[in-house]
Fold this sequence. Notes:
By secondary structure, the chain is α+β, with helices and mostly antiparallel strands. It has three domains: 2-70, Uridine Diphospho-n-acetylenolpyruvylglucosamine Reductase, domain 2 (2-Layer Sandwich); 75-222, 2-Layer Sandwich (Uridine Diphospho-n-acetylenolpyruvylglucosamine Reductase, domain 3); 232-347, UDP-N-acetylenolpyruvoylglucosamine reductase, C-terminal domain (Uridine Diphospho-n-acetylenolpyruvylglucosamine Reductase, domain 1, Alpha-Beta Complex), CATH 3.90.78.10. The chain has nine helices and 18 strands. The strands form six sheets. A five-stranded antiparallel beta sheet has the order 6-7-12-10-11. The longest helix has 19 residues, at 318-336. The radius of gyration is 20 Å and the shape is globular.
Amino acid sequence: MQELHDAPLAPLTTFRLGGPATRLITATTDAEVIAAVREADDTGTPLLIIGGGSNLVIGDKGFAGTALRIATTGFALDGTRLELAAGEVWTDAVARTVEAGLAGVECLAGIPGSAGATPIQNVGAYGQEVSSTITEVVAYDRRARETVTLANADCAFSYRHSRFKADPERYVVLRVRFELEDADGLSAPIKYAETARSLGVEPGDRVPLATARETVLKLRSGKGMVLDPEDHDTWSAGSFFTNPILTDEEFTAFHARVAERLGTDVVPPAYPAGEGHTKTSAAWLIDKSGFTKGYGSGPARISTKHTLALTNRGRATTEDLLALAREVVAGVRDAFGITLVNEPVTVGVEL
C-alpha cells in the first residue's frame, strides 16, 4: 500500500476540485482494501472511499481522515460470465467485453469511473443499466466485519440507487460479477430512442457491438460526457442532477406549471417510471428555467454542450460549483415546483 499525508484529492476527481486528505492510502489488492478499512474502523478514523473520482464533490477544506483509493485490478471472463475488480477502469472494461463479442454493457461505453462504483449508483445510460447484467457483488461488510456476496436481488437496485448507496457507511465493493450475452457479435436490443435514431434502426433492433459502442461514444462526446483533459466541458461529474420521478399528482401539478409558463402547446418530457409515477427530464427543466448551455460568468459554469453538466472551467473552487448548483436548483423550483437532487456524492459540503 502507498501512504501519503496531507495529500491533494482534487487530482483524483474528474471535477479536479477539493482540498487535501489527512492521509491517503492507495490499495492494489482486496486484502489491502480490507486492512485499510478495518484499521479506520478500529481507530474511529473517518474514511472516504475513492474509485475513479467521477462522482465526487469534495469540499475545499478537504477530508479530515483517511481517504482510501481503490486501485485493484482484475478482468476475468469465463464464457459469458465476467468478474471485475472494483478498481478496474469501467470504460476500458466495456471495450474489452465488446472485443470479446459479448453484449449487455456496450451502451455504457465512455462512462468515467471504476467498476466498483457501478452497482452503487446503478450506473445507466442510453437504455442500459448495470442492474440488468450484474449477478453478484462481492463487498466487505463493515458492520459484520466480513466479506459478503450479495445476489442481484439483494442489492435493491432502482433508478440511480442501490442498497450500497442507501447505506454508504456499511459496504465497500470489492468485485462485481456480470452475466453478459453472446449474440453472435450483435448488441443487446437497442432501447434508447436517440441511440436508435443515430444508428438508423428501430428500437428493439440489434446492431454490431462495435457500432453500438462507437455510436454511444460519439453521442457522449457531443455532450462533453467523455473525459478529455483539454476540454473543460468534461471537468465535471457528468450529469449533476438525476431525472425527477413524480407521482401522478405531482406530474399533473408540473404539467399545469408548464402550461402557465410556456404555453398549453408545450408538452414536457414524460417517461413511464412504474405504476403511478412518471419520470421527466432534468436537462429540460434546467434549460426551460433559463439556464442554457454555457450559463454562468464565473469559473464554474454549465457545460457548453449539455445543460445537465456543471463544469470547472479551470480556476473554480468547490464553493463556486455549489453556488452554481444552488442557483440552478432554486431556479427550477421557482419555475416548475420541482426540486432537483444532485447525483454526485458530496464530501464535507452540502447542496
